[in-house]
Amino acid sequence: MFHWLEKRPFFFAVGVFLVIAFAGLIEIIPDFAQASRPVVGTKPYTVLQLAGRHVYIKDSCNACHSQLIRPFKSETDRYGPYSLSGEYAYDRPFLWGSKRTGPDLMRVGEYRTTDWHENHMWEPSSVVPGSIMPAYKHMFTQNADIETAYAEALTVKKVFNVPYDKPGMPKLGEWEEAKKQAMEEARKIASEMKNQDVKDAVANGEIPEIVALIAYLNSLR
Amino acid sequence: MVNAAMEYDYTVSKWFAYLSIIFGIIGMVVGVLIAFQMAYPELNNLFGQYGTFSRLRPIHTNVVAFGFTLSGIWAAFYYISQRVLKVSIRENSVVHGIAKLHFFLYVILAAGLVVSLLLGITTSKEYAEMEWPLDILTVVVWILFGLALFGLIGMRREKTLYISMWYFIAFFLGVAMLYLFNNMEVPTYFVTGMGKWYHSVSMYAGTNDALVQWWYGHNAVAFVFTVPIVAMIYYFLPKESGQPVYSYKLSLLSFWGLMFVYLWAGGHHLIYSTVPDWMQTMGSIFSVILILPSWGSAINMLLTMKGEWNQLKESPLIKFMVLASTFYMLSTLEGPIQAIKSVNALAHFTDWIIGHVHDGTLGWVAFMIIAATLHMAPRYYKREIYSKKLMEMQFWLQTTGIVLYFSSMWIAGITQGMMWRAVDQYGNLAYSFIDTVTVLHPYYTIRAIGGLLFVIGLFMWAYNYVKTMQSGKILEKEPAFASPMGA
Asked: Among residues B348, B183, B52, B192, which one has the least CA distance to residue A93?
């Protein structure tokens, strides 16, 4: 049989494809049949939080930080309750990471504050002596892209039926409303910050990346 | 046809070989920089926001995996396929044109990838960071490669496909399948008419997204770092040593075994995560079974050298290839060990994984590509390799570099894993997270030095290659086996 195949590239290729596709069919399809349902209390991100998530992705925070707490006592002691599948129901993409050069951030909103993040992102070693994390000062001057975040939220609402605008869920509404809503959230965060440039920018109707990022990090619970 | 070997056309093969050298140096210089950043974090401030570890790390992985490695593979592919199929690519101008287009579009794609990652345009999925416009270009490049592959096969005079061709076919099909499914995404601009035009959102959410990503991520390793590299060693080792492949049956078993088993193993990236338990267990079990086909290939290669081990002493090219198969064995034993659940609990998220990746990629993939280019160079240019001594020095320098790399990362990873879980006499965590970072400083320094040695070796490779082109001693006719080398 193998000699026969080796003279017939077409059937050879078909054979190879069947053999490699097999595992995918068995491993992946069943889980898709029962796509993970959100656990009670899981909500989609607000536009500002989503913009912050884009900042997180843009600077590849996930290269060094995981968002996955494994079911071991050493992990739940350090980071909080272990992760449940449904908690990720609105994460597109997932941000579990594969390396913990820094600590896990799955529930960082439970134990860090706006103030802490502000100091930390400006100069990590000022709050964590010995930290090897780079400073992210550019986040204090560049603006977050609220429009793209809104476009993404609207897309997942339309295409994947993510429950924005449902009772008890974040409001999306029209672009103007959404922008106003994001500004309001941003003002609240800026009021807890001390960097004057950031405060001025927000007062002028801009949203620096750091504000969006902190909104996202505070939402991780 | 007095000397058929002289008829082959190596134009595209050579182009890819040059590109492989260039990307190898760029990708690994960035790698050394980010390695030093972990030991000396002030180095993050060299280029503003474009120089932080987090921006550069995806550039390192992508340029090495998809720049250096793919170029090296395609250089070898356009060389090997003509020879084992007994055709010259020049015989058919359409296929030759496709091959050239394949090269040019690939260069554009690679440039686009580097620029977009520097700007922070990324989907965040490891080894699938490109946004949808570049994904589409990737598919085009891949289709062109497929057309060249099957075009050459269609033209063949030798009816039976040599082992290397099996692996190249699998390489094409496997990557095509994985890439398409993992990069399913919805461009947000087309749905809403707002925001950045190149932005997209993943078709899968949360746990499902993770599952597809690691089915891809692990098997991208399989079908880029393993399958085509095995194709290369099955051609170049017998060719350089003048020995026939030890066992046809063993190559049969290894090939079909690898094809069937590898795809299952992706689940080992998700052990103790929120994917269903049975998938984690399957990932774990199949990873262990994977030792069989992996070692099958490696042992087949080592036994090919049976009775000819004196060549190991005499030829640095044989040294590179034999050590490559040895590192392949090491890496494919280490991987399954890390996939065992209890070991994974310790190793996951630590530097041990980084060490594992690098003994495979540096020891196996890079060594094989280096050996391939230096075997091809005398046949490309009809010249002797410029310097045997330089190649010997490169070999020992790089081997030292790899050993420093993986041994320091083993220690770092296990140290970190143990400290994360250590408790005091009352059952409280013994260390804060930062303790587990600062303790790694010496190992990060050693690792960076190991990487630096490897990169110095790459410059020696480039120099030797260029010198071979320009001033290697001219050969009367093509060497049948062992590549001739100047002192």
From this structure: B183
- With CB atoms and an 8 Å threshold, state whether B124 touches A148: no
CA B4 and chain centroid, separation: 32
Q: What is the pLDDT of residues A145-183, one digit of tens each?
A: 999 999 999 999 999 999 999 999 999 999 999 999 999
For the record, the structure tokens of B333 come out as: 């034993």
Q: Is B348 helix (H, G, I), strand (E, B) or coil?
A: coil
CB atoms B196 and A148 under 8 Å: yes
CB contact under 8 A, A20 and B263: yes
Whole-angstrom distance, CA of residue A126 vs CA of residue A143: 24
Torsion of the alpha carbons at A127, A131, A132 and A137, rounded to the nearest 10: 0
Degrees, nearest 5: CA angle B45-B51-B52: 80
CB proximity list for B268: less than 8 A, separation 6 or greater: B218, B280, B283, B284, B287, B338, B339, B344
Say if A191 is an interface residue toward chain B (CB within 8 Å).
no
Give counts: helices (H), strands (E), chain B. Answer: 20, 2
A33 falls in which pLDDT band (50, 70, 90)? low
Q: Which of B300, B305, B352, B303 is closest to B331 using CA atoms? A: B352
- Chain B residues whose CB is inside 8 A of the A154 CB are 188, 191-192, 194
CB B221 within 8 A of CB B262: no
CB neighbours of residue B238 within 10 Å: 18
B318-359 confidence digits (pLDDT tens): 999 999 999 999 999 999 999 999 999 999 999 999 999 999
Residues 6+ apart with CB under 8 A from A158: B191, B192
The single-letter code of the amino acid at A151 is A
For B99, the token pair is 């091959």
Measure the CA–CA gap between A70 and B345, rounded to whole angstroms: 9
A-chain residues near B164 (CB < 8 A): none
pLDDT single digits (tens) B166-193: 999 999 999 999 999 999 999 999 999 9
What DSSP character marks residue B69?
A: I
How far A76 CA lies from chain B's nearest CA (Å)? 11
CB-based contact B199 A148, cutoff 8 Å: yes
Q: Cβ neighbours of residue A128 under 8 Å, at least 6 residues apart?
A: A120, B434
Which domains are present in chain A? 2-33 (no CATH), 47-219 (1.10.760.10)
**CATH architecture classification, B8-471:** Up-down Bundle (1.20)
What tokens does A53 get? 């998530």
pTM: 0.95
Q: Where are the domains of chain B?
A: 8-471
**Is the pLDDT score of A36 beyond 70?**
no
pLDDT along chain B (487 residues), means of 10: 65 98 98 98 94 96 96 98 95 97 98 96 95 97 98 95 97 95 94 96 93 90 92 97 95 95 91 92 94 96 95 96 97 96 96 96 97 97 96 98 97 97 96 97 98 98 97 90 90
Q: In B40-162, where does DSSP find H-type helix?
A: 53-62, 70-85, 93-118, 132-154
AA identity, residue B280: Q
